[in-house]
Design brief:
The termini are far apart. Helix 4 (about 55-60) crosses helix 6, helix 5 (about 70-80) packs across helix 6 and helix 7 (about 100-120) packs across helix 8. It is built from 9 helices and no strands. It has one domain (about 10-145). It is mainly alpha-helical. Helix content is about 60%, strand content about 0%.
């Protein structure tokens, strides 16, 4: 299991141009990702090729939720051609994962470990990534109801 990336000159130059106020960068920089290595360690063999850092793969998977990309295939393409996303996830420009790598990563970790990683990552992720994904589709319906003079009702749990 690979645990760190050494920056190439190209990656370093691009990192200097990354906007320090990028919202995704701010969120990713303020999360302690170290717990992912302990969760993923038993899922990787000490022999063979190092592969990609599980933290980078996990960060990349999180880009799907806020709508940066919509699938593993589009994620792999975006990482290959979008310097911002490549840097935010921690990949080197010339060593980005293929779409199959993301599927293998999720299968290797298993649903339990993958979702445990989501819950441990930080409450900020729930508010910034998932809450808008759940609430934004409801906004047009709420606007239609209020424009028609009706008040929206919400189910009570």
């Amino acid at each position: 299991m690979k645990t760190a990336n050494q920056l190439t000159f190209t990656t370093y130059e691009a990192s200097l141009r990354l906007n320090p106020n990028d919202p995704t960068k701010i969120i990713f920089d303020n999360i302690d990702w170290s717990f992912i290595h302990s969760l993923a360690k038993s899922k990787y063999s000490p022999r063979g090729a190092g592969g990609h850092d599980p933290i980078s793969l996990f960060r990349a998977q999180l880009l799907i939720y806020p709508g940066e990309v919509s699938s593993d295939r589009k994620l792999a393409s975006a990482l290959r051609y979008n310097a911002r996303l490549c840097l935010l996830c921690g990949f080197d420009f010339f060593k980005t994962p293929s779409n199959g790598t993301f599927t293998n990563f999720r299968h290797r970790l298993g649903d339990d470990v993958f979702y445990e990683s989501l819950h441990k990552s930080h409450p900020t992720l729930l508010h910034v990534f998932w809450l808008p994904c759940v609430l934004l589709p409801l906004v047009p319906n709420l606007l239609d109801l209020t424009a028609a003079g009706n008040s929206p009702t919400f189910p009570v749990s």
